[in-house]
Amino acid sequence: MPEVPYKEFILRRLHSLTGIVPMTVFLAEHFWTNSYALQGAERFNEAADHIRGFPYIILIEIFGLGLPFAFHIAYGIKIIYSGDYTIYANNPAKNWMYVLQRVTAFPILAFLVFHVITIRILHGIGDDVDLHATMVDVFANKFLLAFYVVGIVCTCFHCANGIATAAITWGLTVGPTSQKVAGAVAAGVGLVLSGMALWSIRGFMPEAAPEAAEAIEAMKAAPETVLYLIESLRGVIA
Amino acid sequence: MAQKTVQLRVKRQDGPGARPRWEHFEVPHAPGKNVISCLIDIARKPVTLEGRETTPVQWDCACLEEVCGACTMLVNGKPQQSCSSLVDNLEQPIELAPLTKFPVVRDLVVDRQKMFKNLERFRAWVPIDGTYPMGEGPLLSAEDQQVRYNRSRCMTCACCMEVCPQINGRSDFVGPAVIGQVEFFNLHPSGPEEMGKRLEEMMGTGGIHECGNAQNCVAACPKEIDLTDAIAEVGRQVTIFAVKKFLHSS
Amino acid sequence: MAKQRIIVVGGGLAGLMTTIKIAEMGVAVDLFSIVPVKRSHSVCAQGGINAAKDQQGQGDHPDIHLDDTIYGGDFLANQTPVKTMCDAAPQIIDLLSRMGVPFNRTPEGFLDFRRFGGTLHNRTAFAGATTGQQLLYALDEQVRRFEVAGLVTKYESWEFLSLIRDEDDGRVIGITAICNPDMSIHHFAADAVHICTGGPGIIFGKSTNSYINTGAAASRCYQQGAAYANGEFIQVHPTTIPGEDKLRLMSESARGEGGRVWVPKDGKPWYFLEERYPKYGNLVPRDIATREIFSVCVEEGLGLDGKNQVYLDLSHLDETFLNRRLGGIMEIYEKFAGDDPRKTPMRIFPGVHYSMGGMWVDFEQQTHIPGLFAVGEVEYQYHGANRLGANSLLSCIFGGMVAGPKSIEYINGLKRSADDVAPSAFAAEQNRQIEVFDDIYRMTGKENPYDLGDEMGEWMTNNCTIVRHNDKLAATDEKLVELLERWENVGVNDASRVYNQYVLRTRQLKDMLQLARVICLGALRRDESRGAHFKPDFPERDDENWLKTTMARHTPEGPSLEYEVVDTSIIKPRPRVYSKS
Ligand SMILES: Cc1cc2nc3c(=O)[nH]c(=O)nc-3n(C[C@H](O)[C@H](O)[C@H](O)COP(=O)(O)OP(=O)(O)OC[C@H]3O[C@@H](n4cnc5c(N)ncnc54)[C@H](O)[C@@H]3O)c2cc1C
After folding, report:
1. What is this structure's pTM?
2. Same domain, B10 and B103
3. Residue C534: which of C458, C442, C466, C485 has the closest Cα?
4. Is there a domain that residue B117 lies in?
């Protein structure tokens, strides 16, 4: 096979691109749709059906989402493998971002696979699916709920940090000031996304109050779960 | 708080491939003393704290005022020049170890030739026509001079390489230092001639795309070179170059 | 004749410029350096490089540059080569600027110039306060270009050990060198050899020089027959920060940009240089400033807190201005002395800095040994009895521009190439050097080279620097002889054949001691005061007897001194008085 010139460079930039364009756009769309659940099961199912009814949806899903993601994941693993995970005292914040970007990839991957298989493939195919009901069932399980929360938070962090570093990689933000501003904007995007996603979970809670309360308790535990994750990682690294 | 002595733990390695070991030394203290003076003291009397005779510790140094880059090592885990590492600012025992991203020659001496090879590879020079009188060089604004000067102070000391998580046995990243130099030369008014070649090379093996944006380099640079600015700027240049190249390619 | 090669030993400014010139003319160069050339001592140069480009409407001219240099050097320099150098200086600056040196600029984008010592003109181009580093890098980059083109081969971490000379006509046919990482000794053939190994500051123990500036290479050439000229002229720089391992320079440019030297006297700042030298003020030549500071501290007892220290004050100047023009040295002061010179006056004292003397060369940079050239601080030619600030970088680069082409001319005139010489000649010298090292490895005495070196340094600094007395000089030479004997008694406790600095230092020390004797005896013999050489017992310059170049030749009994007339064909010697306004 002939050597493709600049193969690594092109793959790396594609990795950046696939992270930004399909991922961020898709997340925004997905969380927006989820938020219909806050207006009731019907509105949500309507919205989901609307999306699922897009022309060419299967092609969009395979070529617009599936393949880019698959590539992003595969090449990402290579990147993760090629890094060092020492934290240097003189630059802890950025260094942690670098590490977290790579570390969050694993829960995200687990979550993504689980979510796609259980929801999109096992429950999402066919004419008369009630996705809302499915999700209510899922969230009734506290463990799954926590898993979802962690998955969402990690995804949003990975996405936001990815946006900030992509701006550097592509040469949009050159100096420290613009990088800081871009970082703040990206963090804002991450917060909005995760806020939207987490908030919309309320729309999937059964009416019965005690369970909803439990769910909210579980959500409160989420940041702690993330912190715990970081702490245990710190242990692994040190 | 004046101490009478200075204690050091030094990572020793007799030669390339030899098994490292640690030795503990104690040397007299003096105000303003730096790590190099301690190493000279050890060479005078190479006896460990336990009283065992050993060989003098080997290290590299030249200018002793932090402009040549030779004496870079890990001082209490941080890559820095040992000449400007003043004993009074360091926690004791002071731990000295060779840089980890380069092959060890002996003790604290490492082989950093690959950094010079990188400069070759990225054509880090201005392509002058010759050394004969050809009149003045190009005008340059005082502002551009300040940016160029900042990049030009790179002494190839390898602090940035040492803290870069993307430089290790599993990646062939060329590292931040040379990217700073590429920006430096691309900034020169006669840059365009070689700029394309430099950027093309930057897209090659271990090029700028291997940067992971951990930004440790800029924090570690003893000369406060804006390495991350340089990386982003070269990133931008490469982006534009690559797109143009693609659009023009036959 | 086989393909000819030229060897350049030393990759400071001098060695690199020589290399560039030779490679540019298509001849292959083998370049040797103890440290990677980019780490050569030239990186230390701070203040700038001189050229009378007269871009500030002051009516400067290369002839004035020449006069300042000759007058500043107290008429000891041969005038013809100095004139050529001063004439070439503006073009050298242009060349450096074309190579991309980030010189400071005027608002319009032209080169900026500042004032240095011993002149009334703004003549010094500069890149912040790290000019030497910037120049070295620019030349290093050009050499790298030739390296990629296959014309230059670098031997970094190699130390030059000896010359190989043709048995018949004595010309140089190669060198031997040791490869530090494995301590193996090799020979290299060449038709011409350039020695560009810099100054000998470490002979004085603490100086502003780099740790590698032992002068050992020059000493080795001297011991093999090259003459060493004007060794007694050692520049002591007025403003250095005292340190444990090194005296760190605070460049003359600090005064060039407005820095003032003072001590408190009767409760008020006393600007003694400004008072005594109203015209030149703080920018009198270094030998004079040094003696004034010395006398204020030592004779008048006015040093700060009773110590040998005076203030060098920048604190009245604007911070942005200081950062742009002197950033490098302020960083050094902050890091090593711990205070911010933008806010508090710096504490400084004179320290050994530069050797005006060096290997004797003719106007084509060639030594007495055919085919052996010397360039840079290692030779004696451009600075007479006292060097003006910012003239050294110039002389290094200019010397290289002369020596490179001249060495090619020389090899083109040769009838036989080094490659035609029987290989046994090379092997013999190589074996001799291997034996020297084997002997060192076998030494089992009680001395160590670092303590002996310190002792040499103390004696030399105490007796052979600012103020010199014949009895003390004589005692110093005796001491040096004693140290040479004690050297035999060094114990080598490290048998390693990997990067063995202890063994290398032991070898260097012996050569340093030999060179120290040249410096010391040259000073002892010269009964006058001229430039940096000051004897209170002979306080006047004595042109009748001493307007001549000292030339030391090595003999087994020690240096033998000869003298040579000085070329004063352009400017008639006149009294050197900076105090008149
Ligand atoms: C702190 C300081 C500031 C200065 N500032 C200025 C200034 O502002 N302006 C100015 O004009 N001058 C200045 N000078 C003087 C000037 O820097 C030096 O005189 C000049 O750089 C010497 O250059 P060089 O090429 O001769 O030697 P160096 O730069 O000393 O290079 C010597 C080379 O020889 C090599 N070498 C030595 N021995 C051997 C050996 N045995 N075998 C192989 N290689 C060997 C070394 O590795 C090195 O590459 C300053 C000097 C100092 C100390």
Report:
1. 0.94
2. yes
3. C466
4. yes
